[in-house]
Amino acid sequence: MTRLAWVCALGLAGTLVGAMPAAAAVTEPLPAAPRTPAATASAQPTDPAAIAPDPAWAAALAAALGADGGPQVGAVLAQQPAWRAALHSLRAEQAVARQWRAGSGEWVAALSAARRRQTDPAVERSQEWELSVERALRLPGKAKLHAAAGLARVQQAQAQAQRVWRELARQLVQDLASAQRETRAAALWQAQAALLAEQRDAVVKRQRLGDAAQIEAQQAELAWLQAQAQADAARNRAATARAFLTTRYPGLAWRDTPAPAAGAAGPALSPSPAPTLTDDALLQRLQEASAELAAARHDAAAAQAQARVDAAEVRGDPSVGLRWGQARSGAEQYVGVMLSLPLGSDYRRAGADAAQARASAAALQAADAQARWQADAARRLAELRAADAALHRAQRAAQQADAVAERLRLGYRLGEGSLTDVLNARRQANELHQAALAAALDRLQQQALLAIDARWLWPEPADPGVAGED
Fold first, then answer.
1. Which of 190, 210, 270, 340 is most deeply buried (CB count within 10 A of its CB)?
2. Could you tell me the CATH number of the domain that includes residue 304?
3. Is residue 327 part of a domain?
4. What pLDDT score was predicted for residue 48?
5. What's the pLDDT score for residue 294?
6. Tally of domains within the chain
7. Is 375 part of a structural domain of the chain?
8. Structural domain span for residue 211
């Protein structure tokens, strides 16, 4: 390696080492991780204005992902089969709630007719008939319990529908990030191939002038062919990703990323800054908007409401009725009332015990969901800060690698250094740009997922029971 190459390599190493401790100091402000779950749970309520949605941040995130237009994305998600199935499940629970409010008791009419024959010829034959109506009456308090259980099941279905929407939105973010990753990687490889094509042409020109050996021209040609092959493969992957988006999300207006001009470092990707919220404010926002916690709470509430209904059903509902009929061909007529009362059984008591056990299990599952959510929230905030620092370091490294590669290229042009040093520097710069792209998209994806969970990006319809009607 020549003296110029050693100087450039040492300069790059010194720059990278110097950038390591300073990365956290110049990064954008991000929420800090919570101290402990207990401290978070005991935090005082935060001013609602401090955790209000940030439309500008959400719009910037959507633009970076290439899916501008919140209403348009909402319409695409509303047509997903999983969301429509959740709406039908919600409508089913609404119908069940109406059933429970009305009750299962209904009037039952019965008519019986008979003809009596006697073996004694001296006794005349007679005709008899009877008409009765009967209905079960709910005991006092049961109607209120049934109505509460029906409402709890509707709220449970609403929470499940919101959870489905969030899952669809998260999957959309992952698919958009994947498409952006492939498209931008293809652009980087195309720029790399263009730079190596220029280097190849320069080496061929020097060979004709007698300043370069034939082996150097072959090395330059081989490096360009390798980069071109990588660019072709990356374009194929990008086309596959775009086709997947078109098929998976019909009607989604996804904005593609154009390839950079030759000599450019690649397409710029600047993730939007996260909102400057305190730990408690951001965690409170995420907790209040969490679809998973809401689903767990409503599951527990629905199970408890059902347990109260089953406990009340240990005492069966009485039935009352009216009988009217005649006998002996009308010689006798009668009117009477009927009362039947179930005495209960082990079957009903066992059903009540099972419902209470399911309610206890659901309450414990909700507590477990809360504990897991707190741990996951702390992990996500820590990962988001780490991703911010990693992105800054990767971008600095890519910039310095470009500078080193350019110095080596100019030195080789002036007769200093070797072509191998130039090609290795160009390869390293491309690898660092690919790493910076991956870090930027990872950070962008984490921020978008956080915005979805906070209901800042593509929130579910306010009334899922009305939106998305067929």
1. 190
2. 1.20.1600.10
3. no
4. 37
5. 94
6. 1
7. yes
8. 3-104+141-312+351-453
CA–CA gap between residue 307 and residue 149 (Å, rounded):
9
Count of CA atoms in the C-beta half-sphere (13 A) of 292: 17
Across the range 165-185, mean pLDDT stands at 94
C-beta separation of 313 from 352 below 8 A: yes
| Dihedral sign from CA coordinates of 272, 275, 280, 286 | negative
Comparing 162 with 34, the larger pLDDT belongs to 162
The Cα 352–Cα 358 span in angstroms is 10
Burial class (CB in 10 A: 0-12, 13-18, 19+), 36: exposed
Calculate mean pLDDT across residues 74-92.
94
Handedness of CA 93, 97, 102, 103 (dihedral sign): positive
Contact 201, 192 (CB under 8 A): no
Looking at the domain assignment, is residue 73 inside a domain?
yes
Residue 217 lies in a domain: yes
